[in-house]
Amino acid sequence: MLKLKALIAFTALVPTVHAYAVDEAVAMELAKNNGCLACHGMANKLVGPAWKDIGKKYAADAGAEAVLVAKVRKGGKGVWGEVPMPPNVTVKEADVRTLVQYVLSLK
Q1: Residues paired with residue 76 on neighbouring β-strands, in sequence order
Q2: What is the structure's pLDDT at 21?
Q3: 3-state SS record for the chain
Q4: Long-range contacts: 90-97, Cβ < 8 Å, 24+?
Q5: What residues does 45 pair with on adjacent strands?
Q6: Is 45:36 a contact under the CB 8 Å cutoff?
Q7: Residue 32 pLDDT more than 70?
Q8: Burial class (CB in 10 A: 0-12, 13-18, 19+), 104
Q9: Average pLDDT over residues 7-19
Q10: For residue 10, what pLDDT is reported?
Q11: Is residue 12 exposed (0-12), middle (13-18) or buried (19+ Cβ within 10 Å)?
Q12: Among 18, 21, 37, CA closest to 29
């Protein structure tokens, strides 16, 4: 029983790792069709941050998916600089979730 308690205590200290199985081709097609690639590069900052930088920043955040889905849908400003990201309310929420899961899978 003591070993179980120690294991539980240890796992609480280990950062959360996002394990998403999103097909890259599907994610890139969604990104292309919804204009994401006009502002975001995979590995390089364009207008907005690189997707790999976003993946790294939120890698240990268990609530990142919900936060980023809301941020993509509503838009935002200030986390990555002063250039605002416009709201993306016309993109289906399921598509936004797929894109966010893909971004979070990048390191």
Answers
A1: 85
A2: 72
A3: CHHHHHHHHHHHHCCCCCCCCCCHHHHHHHHHHCCHHHCECCCCECCCCCHHHHHHHCCCCCCHHHHHHHHHHHCECCCCCCCCECCCCCCCHHHHHHHHHHHHHCC
A4: 91/34, 93/69, 95/30, 95/34, 96/69, 96/72, 97/65, 97/69
A5: 40
A6: no
A7: yes
A8: buried
A9: 46
A10: 45
A11: exposed
A12: 37
The pTM for the full model equals 0.80
pLDDT in tens, 36-71: 999 999 999 999 999 999 999 999 999 999 999 999
Task: Yes or no: say if 45 and 93 are a contact pair by the CB < 8 Å rule.
Answer: no
Go through the domains of the chain in sequence order and give each one's CATH number.
17-105 (1.10.760.10)
